[in-house]
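Q: Got a minute? One more chain.
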Amino acid sequence: MIESLIEEFSMAIRQLRLKKFRTLLILLGIAVGVATVVAVVSFGEGLRINAVEEIQKSRDLTLIEVSPGLRENGLILISDSKVEEIKGFEEVVCPYIKDAYVSPSGSYFELFGVQEDYKTANEFELAGGSWFESGQNQIVLGSDLWEKLEKIDGIKIGVPTTAKLRLYGEDGRPLDKEVRFTPVGYLKPTGSDMDSGAFIELESAKELSNKEYYDGVLVKAESSSQVPETRAQIEKIGLASSSAQDEIDSVNRIMNGITFVLALFSSISILVGGLMVVNTMVVSVYERTREIGISKALGAAESDILKMFLAECLIIGAFGGILGDLIGVIFSVLIDRIGKALLISRLEIGNIEHLTALNFKILAAGFLISLVVSILSGLYPAWRAAKMDPVRALRHL
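A: Always. Here it is, folded:
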């Protein structure tokens, strides 16, 4: 069995060596197709990894946002009892309320009523002033909101200012309640929506808005690996939850779809290589008609003829896949260097280490695609050679 396989592949190699230039063209056709797919997929994978890394840098993967849950007859609100239940899952649990305010100049902002743990969980750092004290309408502003109100409203640390709390009556009409605040500090940029908000002591916020329930709860897990389990426990008590992992999963789905579409279009070049294999093998069958007739007259079975031609296709596919992977690596390096330089110069993006991401799975997929395309392309010519009438084949000039 092994000896016959060795003999078939030796014969296939001899046949391919007799047509060196034709074989080289076929290999290049397959290799360029494989290289294109490898480079495009590595580019898509690189974009996906960069997007995920950006999320991981800007978001804390251990934080869980809890919001009111939905049921058939309405909302499941976040009460003190629900907060106590959540505290049974994790140690750091930070309930908060959130209200919309309007500054004297008409600038809208959200004021979060929070506790000290909320600051620790989000790793807030003060850029100026101090954190608020309990029992007073002292507020701390996010970096973007501070710059905006300082420029437009002229607010200063320690100088009282006013803002209107936007409430709604039973008839749905807006009711504005004027509140006097004292800005005591502002935060360093966090790169999140928190930069556009302000923060006040939780009990003060509850008194201002007369709320009995919380708008949300921030939960900090001990590690990112515990987040799924904690979220499952929170959702069991009827509340909704979200985390940075949701955003990562969304990015992965989108980028996987984009990569698939790009790979689909780039695979057209592989189909062209497959057509070259079909054309070459059909010509080869025609040129070797007498050889096929002699082989069948000497007792060769149809399966022997079939394996003889498929062995050539297998060799073409194997060498084409290896060459394609090598060229694909070169393409990926060029995309990485040229594309990264272009992004840095045109889009002013300088924190990308690599634009492409090659791995063993991509290279293995390129090699297997080459094999499959070559074998499928050679099936018809091989079948045609196997079914050839030996008498007619021997009469062929």
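A: The chain has two domains: 2-57+251-395, 94-215.
Q: Perfect, thanks.
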